[in-house]
């Protein structure tokens, strides 16, 4: 997915998912285990007229030790897309329960989930990330009996490094903007992303705002296989470049996907580089923030 | 008498929960939450936690208990809204404090704060009706 916000909007627009039966009905034994563990001696949860502790609502929906086959929800697509974009960290930030009426043992419930919001990109103490909010409604037949609004932060974990190990910032910075952000984000998560027209599907590189073929401004991207051949190259000897040791190779690499991309060829002597040479992409962390896609000799 | 005790500004008696491994594990399983970080210390540490820690379903349950322990069985909990903070690790102590924030007839709201040695574990409100 090109844009996480586009995907979020789509998932939110889908509204409430199907009502699925909870794995267990409201039952006395589960209530007793729960009140024992919580140390809750409230007499209202005991005896023939017992009600279930309202805070147990989510317990009735828990999948249990071996899980169960759960239908994939649109929310799963959004969380997976956040993982794929490098926001692999997860921390719950808010949980709200609303109880419309008490439940009694024997009641069978269904629950349905809707994704309600995604905000970001936000800077947080844990790292940059997106807040995703969803709402679960529990029903007894058609009557809504309880709701839960749950928010979590999907964040890009900071790399742990002691100050002495901290890398000096690499002196050269690429221009990262709304057109190119997906490319650099891809490099950080080990993907060579090529911009793709959201309408006609044509691939283009370097990224830009408008499709040169059909003039559409809808943008998405494809993940390249990461192979290519040297289409052309130069060996740079002079002048000196900050942060680089000369000589180094700057190549135009032709990808099997049909676009060409400029990058350094590394892990071999400049004299060994030749036109037509098969290369493979490799991702190198230049400092704490920048990852560059580079090219190493590869099998044909 | 209850009405007087439940006036806005009333402070609830503290609830102090020693977070033994038994408590963390038995509450996790009683809430049917089998995620290993709530019962397997080696897995919890491998994932960057200092120990096993309380699951969210238990935090919700303990906030409910904190209010009904004080308000008595006549009080029915209508809603709980929590901002989650630092983890509540085994070996720590979780202390709930609270004050009555709103009172409108039979409906009341308590501001609740659950604190551990690392700071605020859960901050929020519990709504009840009488």
From TrEMBL, chain A:
<feature type="domain" description="FAS1-like dehydratase">
    <location>
        <begin position="24"/>
        <end position="148"/>
    </location>
</feature>
<dbReference type="InterPro" id="IPR029069">
    <property type="entry name" value="HotDog_dom_sf"/>
</dbReference>
<dbReference type="Pfam" id="PF01796">
    <property type="entry name" value="OB_ChsH2_C"/>
</dbReference>
<protein>
    <submittedName>
        <fullName>DNA-binding protein</fullName>
    </submittedName>
</protein>
<dbReference type="Pfam" id="PF12172">
    <property type="entry name" value="zf-ChsH2"/>
</dbReference>
<dbReference type="GO" id="GO:0003677">
    <property type="term" value="F:DNA binding"/>
</dbReference>
<dbReference type="InterPro" id="IPR012340">
    <property type="entry name" value="NA-bd_OB-fold"/>
</dbReference>
<dbReference type="InterPro" id="IPR039569">
    <property type="entry name" value="FAS1-like_DH_region"/>
</dbReference>
<dbReference type="Pfam" id="PF13452">
    <property type="entry name" value="FAS1_DH_region"/>
</dbReference>
<keyword id="KW-0238">DNA-binding</keyword>
<dbReference type="InterPro" id="IPR052513">
    <property type="entry name" value="Thioester_dehydratase-like"/>
</dbReference>
<feature type="domain" description="ChsH2 rubredoxin-like zinc ribbon">
    <location>
        <begin position="184"/>
        <end position="216"/>
    </location>
</feature>
<dbReference type="InterPro" id="IPR022002">
    <property type="entry name" value="ChsH2_Znr"/>
</dbReference>
<feature type="domain" description="ChsH2 C-terminal OB-fold">
    <location>
        <begin position="224"/>
        <end position="284"/>
    </location>
</feature>
<dbReference type="InterPro" id="IPR002878">
    <property type="entry name" value="ChsH2_C"/>
</dbReference>
TrEMBL record, chain B:
<protein>
    <submittedName>
        <fullName>Beta-hydroxyacyl-ACP dehydratase</fullName>
    </submittedName>
</protein>
<comment type="similarity">
    <text>Belongs to the enoyl-CoA hydratase/isomerase family.</text>
</comment>
<feature type="domain" description="MaoC-like">
    <location>
        <begin position="15"/>
        <end position="116"/>
    </location>
</feature>
<dbReference type="Pfam" id="PF01575">
    <property type="entry name" value="MaoC_dehydratas"/>
</dbReference>
<dbReference type="InterPro" id="IPR002539">
    <property type="entry name" value="MaoC-like_dom"/>
</dbReference>
<dbReference type="InterPro" id="IPR029069">
    <property type="entry name" value="HotDog_dom_sf"/>
</dbReference>
